[in-house]
From TrEMBL:
GO function terms (MF aspect): polysaccharide binding
Domain Wall-associated receptor kinase galacturonan-binding, residue spans: 34-105
Native species: Triticum turgidum subsp. durum (Durum wheat)
Protein name: Wall-associated receptor kinase galacturonan-binding domain-containing protein
Membrane topology: Single-pass membrane protein
Chain segments annotated as coiled-coil in the UniProt record: none
Subcellular location: Membrane
Length: 248
């Protein structure tokens, strides 16, 4: 009887918890299974999550959407791209206190390593990101121009001191040029940097306006850029028809 009475008081106490406290309790319970995980040198904690290697299931019974991380080759964590069959983002480190992390766009990095990878140029980095993630305004941008040599656009662009040739050569015989130090625009409007005869994509990079040089495009790719995330919303915490719930 004493044990039954104790459980009754526990349930009643949780029933009358203030709503914000109930949400905190629920959120902690949902994330507790995903604590103390590691991939390479990066700690993976709530709200991020990995698949359990033994069971093949998420570490959490109810994981946050879009925060799933793959441990690539057991050496580094990677975030998936929204574009099917397009490489995502290598995570360099995560600051859980500041809700930010540094990543490398693997799709763009791949164009430096493969002759046939120029299709990656046709995607701005921003459209590969899932909704919770935002490119931090402190980043600058590297613009890559894929210019055809047939109409002389590449030759004309090469005379622009702000542009630098790259060693990337595409199967369509177009050449790739780079411009660095472009300020981040939250609206995504970079029309002032368009060039006739060239397709352009925007890749965030680190560095000051004076220190980011287009000729160092490979190092800029490898250094990555800063992403932030919004506090994730979990549908199971606040269903559409919410009523006070007993949390076991």
């Amino acid at each position: 009887m004493a044990m039954a009475g104790w459980w009754f008081l526990f349930f009643v106490g949780v029933w009358w918890l203030p709503l914000p406290l109930m949400l905190v309790v629920a959120e902690e319970q949902q994330g507790e299974d995903c604590s103390d995980q590691k991939c390479g040198n990066v700690n993976i904690s709530h709200p991020f999550w990995l698949y359990d290697k033994d069971t093949g299931r998420p570490c959490s019974s109810d994981p946050y959407q879009d925060f799933d991380v793959a441990c690539t080759n057991n050496s580094y964590p990677s975030l998936r791209s929204t574009i099917p069959f397009n490489k995502g983002f290598k995570i360099l480190n995560i600051s859980y206190e500041e809700r930010s992390f540094y990543v490398v766009d693997l799709g763009k990095l791949n164009i430096l390593q493969s002759f046939n990878s120029c299709l990656a140029l046709f995607y701005n980095t921003s459209i590969k990101l899932n909704r919770p993630f935002t490119i931090a305004p402190v980043n600058l941008n590297l613009i890559l121009y894929n210019c055809t040599e047939k109409n002389g656009a590449a030759a004309a662009a090469s005379r622009d001191r702000a542009l630098a040739p790259t060693r990337v050569r595409c199967p369509n015989e177009w050449v790739v040029l780079a411009r660095a130090g472009v300020p981040h625009d939250t609206t995504g409007n970079y029309s002032n940097y368009a060039r006739k005869g060239c397709a352009a994509v925007v890749v965030p990079v680190l560095g000051s306006s004076s220190g980011a040089s287009a000729s160092n495009y490979e190092q800029l790719f490898n250094d990555g850029f800063l992403l932030t995330w919004d506090t994730p919303f979990h549908p199971s915490i606040l269903p559409r028809k919410f009523t006070r719930q007993i949390i076991f």
